[in-house]
Specification:
The protein has about 200 residues and is an all-alpha fold. It has nine helices and no strands. Helix 5 runs antiparallel to helix 9. The protein is elongated. The protein starts with 14 loop residues before the first helix and ends in a 5-residue tail after the last helix.
Length: about 200
């Protein structure tokens, strides 16, 4: 589900591979240890490149952080779109719940990469926070589309509730099994989608 849980890119001496290795190492360290706690020197040491090589590919640690978040965003967007079943919102939400249950109970899981980043970068004008907000807007739009398949007039309100449930489901993996998280989250998703319209 998340790119940060993938395997390292195989080491070679080509330029593109070096860039990929830097990004892979940074992704692993940023996710496991935190963005602010991970220095450029720590990434350079893990990859085994010189500072000159590092800064040839990324002008700053900040630029690397943005690429990390963009990579995570692309991976999550691709996954969410892959389980989208147009015309079957309950089926879509069930598939999302199963995926979240599996990912959040996996060894090494440390929560949502975007919520983690937002906790470290509270300034709304910071480029890191802007990258987080851009992905969250995309996710909200996705949930709005799904919710609109059952209740067009309440799509935005339902989407906000689905977002809250999704965020809570990402945390619950620490405390349950994949099946428990998936079943509970799917039931919660379904209850929100099926809730009667307020009078």
């Amino acid at each position: 589900m998340h790119a940060e849980l993938g395997e390292h890119t195989r080491r070679t001496t080509s330029g593109p591979s070096t860039r990929a290795r830097i990004l892979a190492a940074a992704s692993e360290l940023f996710y496991a240890q935190g963005i602010r706690a991970t220095s450029a020197d720590r990434i350079i040491e893990q990859v085994g490149v010189t500072k000159v090589t590092f800064y040839r590919h990324f002008r700053s640690k900040g630029e690397l952080v943005i690429h990390y978040l963009e990579q995570q965003a692309e991976a999550e967007r691709n996954w969410m779109q892959s389980v989208h079943r147009p015309g079957d919102p309950v089926g879509t939400l069930r598939a999302l719940a199963v995926g979240i249950g599996e990912a959040s109970c996996r060894p090494g899981f440390r929560g949502c990469a975007f919520i983690n980043a937002a906790a470290e970068f509270s300034d709304a004008q910071d480029p890191v926070r802007q990258a987080v907000d851009a992905h969250r807007r995309w996710m909200f739009d996705f949930f709005t589309e799904v919710a609109g398949e059952t209740e067009p007039g309440r799509a935005a309100a339902v989407a906000r509730q689905l977002m809250l449930l999704r965020d809570g489901g990402m945390v619950s993996g620490y405390l349950g099994t994949p099946e428990e998280v998936a079943n509970s989250l799917a039931a919660a998703f379904a209850s929100v989608v099926a809730a009667p319209r307020p009078t």
